[in-house]
tRNA/tmRNA/rRNA uracil-C5-methylase (TrmA/RlmC/RlmD family)
Amino acid sequence: MIVVDPPRKGCDPLLLETILEMKPERVVNVSCNPSTLARDLRVLEDGGYRTVEVTPVDMFPHTVHVDSVAMLVRV
C-alpha cells in the first residue's frame, strides 16, 4: 500500500508514474483539493486502478475546506 498526502497542487506527475510502476495493491490519497484529486485519480484509474471509496473529512469546521480520503485498488 502507498499513502500519499499531496499539497494543494496535487501529486507530481513523476510520483504518479512511480506509483504505477511499483504496482501496489492499494493506494490511499489524502487530498485537500477536489479538482487535483479528480485529476490524480484519473491518471491512476487509466493506469489500472479502480477508485472504491472517497470519504470527505471535515478537518476545519466552520470553513469551506474539506479534505478527502480516496482508496484505490489495483484491478
Notes: The helical segments are 13-22, 34-46. The chain has one domain: 2-74.
